[in-house]
Amino acid sequence: MVSQVAESLLLEDETWERVDKATGGAAAPCFQCGVCTAICPWALVKEETVSIRKMVRQAQLGLPGWSDDLWLCTTCLSCESRCPHEVDITKVILGLRQLAWKERQVPHGLPSLMWDVYRDGNPWARPPSERTAWAKGLDLKDFAPSQDILFYVGCTGSYDPRIQKVARALVGVLGAANVDFGVLGEREPCCGDPARESGNWAYAQKIINDNVALFREIGVGTLVTVSPHCYDMFKNYHTGVGEAFRPLHYSQYLAELVAEEKLKFENELPLTVTFHDPCYLARHNDETEAPRQVLSAIPGLSQVEMPRSGIDTLCCGGGGGRMWQETLPGERFSDLRVQEAAETDADILVTACPHCISCLEDSLAGADTRMRVMDLAEVAAAALGLVPAPPARQPAGATP
Amino acid sequence: MNDIQPYEAADASGLWVFLEQDQGELVGVSLELLGKSRELADRLGTSLTGILLGHQVRDLADQAFAAGADQVLLADHPDLAVYNTEPYTRVVSEALAERKPSIFLLGATPDGRDLAGRLAVRVHTGLTADCTGMDVDPQSGLLKGDVVGFGGGIVATILCPDMRPQMATVRPGIFPAPELAPGRKGAVDEIPVRIREEDKRVKVLERVTAAGLDLTKAPCIVAAGRGIRGELSLIEELARLFGGEIGATRVACDEGWLERERQIGQTGVVTRPKLAICCGISGAIHFTVGIEGAETVVAINTDEEAPIFEAADYCIVDDLFAVLPPLIEQLREAANGGQS
Fold this sequence. Notes:
The complex is a heterodimer of chains A (400) and B (340).
Chain A: H1 2-8, H2 13-22, H3 35-39, H4 42-45, H5 52-61, H6 78-82, H7 89-102, H8 110-120, E1 149-152, H9 154-159, H10 161-176, E2 181-182, H11 193-197, H12 201-218, E3 222-225, H13 228-237, E4 246-249, H14 250-259, E5 272-275, H15 279-285, H16 289-296, E6 302-304, H17 333-342, E7 348-351, H18 354-365, E8 372-375, H19 376-383
Parallel strand pairs in A: 1-2, 1-3, 3-4, 5-6, 5-7, 7-8
Helix pairs in contact in A: 2-7, 5-7, 10-19, 13-15, 14-16, 17-18
Chain B: E1 7-8, E2 15-19, E3 21-22, E4 25-26, H1 28-44, E5 48-54, H2 60-66, E6 71-76, H3 85-99, E7 103-107, H4 110-122, E8 127-131, E9 133-137, E10 142-149, E11 154-158, E12 163-164, E13 166-170, E14 187-190, E15 220-224, H5 233-242, E16 245-248, H6 250-254, E17 275-279, H7 285-288, E18 296-301, E19 314-317, H8 320-339
Parallel strand pairs in B: 2-5, 2-7, 5-6, 6-14, 7-13, 8-13, 15-16, 15-17, 17-18, 18-19
Antiparallel strand pairs in B: 1-12, 3-4, 9-10, 10-11
Helix pairs in contact in B: 3-4, 5-8
């Protein structure tokens, strides 16, 4: 028995080097305090905590083999927000996933997700020729550098019927503010986020290189995304597009328009809303103000905060490639989030991310509440009278 | 290793079909291919040959003749009893090089796809993989294979103008199975089996079949969503009458109404049935990616705004508990009427 233990602790230099390279040495500063494990939201839904500390330790020592929990990480950054040594824990986890890709030890469904992005340019296995279907009847302009912004719709806004509504609402809001914008239509590429978040950095890098070349060629300056995930990709990983390249999440752009008084809300929208901060705005990009500034500009609208808000937001469960993997009932963060939001007595749970919308609405459908879920763009469009304003209270049991 | 001589169009003639057998039975797609090839061979004015590998499978030649083959090339050997990439490649590539057919078709089954790719490289010709349609040009003798690309967005017609044979794999279920003419005769010609030691690197030790459900093969799927509220009897009866399977959304699995293996969509199974009937399903994209490949989609939902209707060919805005009973009644009557 003793000899077996001794044997199992043998470290191989070659393995260590591979792990260290893939994780970029990110694990080195960790002194194993375990705050990451304690704060990881999986502890809220699982009986056993997910040991982030152990995964980081594994990377430090270069131990072979993959933790079953490696693929649970939603890259929500809760752990990093509390780490006393500022360890780039997500880099460690995505690095370990990168090795798992090399050894073909990835969960069912992820390889076909990569193939979908490769073949169709989107993670929803829909043909590139249908990428513009969301804009049917809108008569949008092709992008030209002279325009104010490039409106980057993203794959989910282009193909998911639910998020198409968000994209269309946003078109209405931009129009109301007289923004001169263009789109890339069928040429619009995937931002590469599904590859990066599921750890396939090599493929993500290829997508990034292609995108950088495209954006340089067509002269992209301010780029406005529907999804915080695309925004994060462009802002933090697409380097070399040019000095004028300025990726923004649409909430930030709308906040700018409000500040410049180009976007004005004149009608009352007498609703109480609570804002769910998407991880990729709040923790990844330190943006908690812009969405609230837009909401504050709407007369009659009052905001209440959930206990976990701003930088302490609770992940919806859709990041880190989890959107394309199954999460068992009873283990979905969004169930907890909907409950938390309903307890504020808000009429509307507002968010600003396609993944959050999907997860929260999915949980809402099974919850006993009168609250509704809306995207910030939809709230803005409703305030402008572009889409019907939601009633303050939905009668109980009206939605099946 | 490769002593196969490539050959070109001028030296080639005849249409061949790979007769895939599994445990001594011809697989369905081989019969479908024979039926379609008979028609193509007649239009080309050429003969139709089946090539059959196996052990003690001579009887299957009669089925091939009944399905339209003029001739069957038989390689009967214990080492060929079960499909094995290298021995099969050896025997078929040698037969191709010796007899020089102009066209060679295989079923796009796991084994057919495996063999076709290797053969195409071995005999140095092109392969149109996974055809969903097929035609010939009698003047040029060229095979025209339709291949779907970009997630169904385009159909490309692919030709192989210079090298021979013109190879293609065809998905099962594309062409109808031919009516068999039991008395039809043809010639069986044994071909040499020269398997080398180096071809025998893989040995089949045991064959294990997992029992279970394969929604990807179901011709009809009756899919149940939140709207069924756990009431399965109508769904079950409808699936039975259509000879299909029951599928489920994530909610229907979460609620424990149906097993997780029946879940359709992004995190479940991607299906391509001829008919999908979606009952009480709102139609989030995570579900609809799993039925995009269905030939016909019927959706029943009380909410006329439900996105499922965007993905459906036939939209019924009504309560499924009102729609299904008369439909089931009609199907039952049709079934009984057919028997009496």
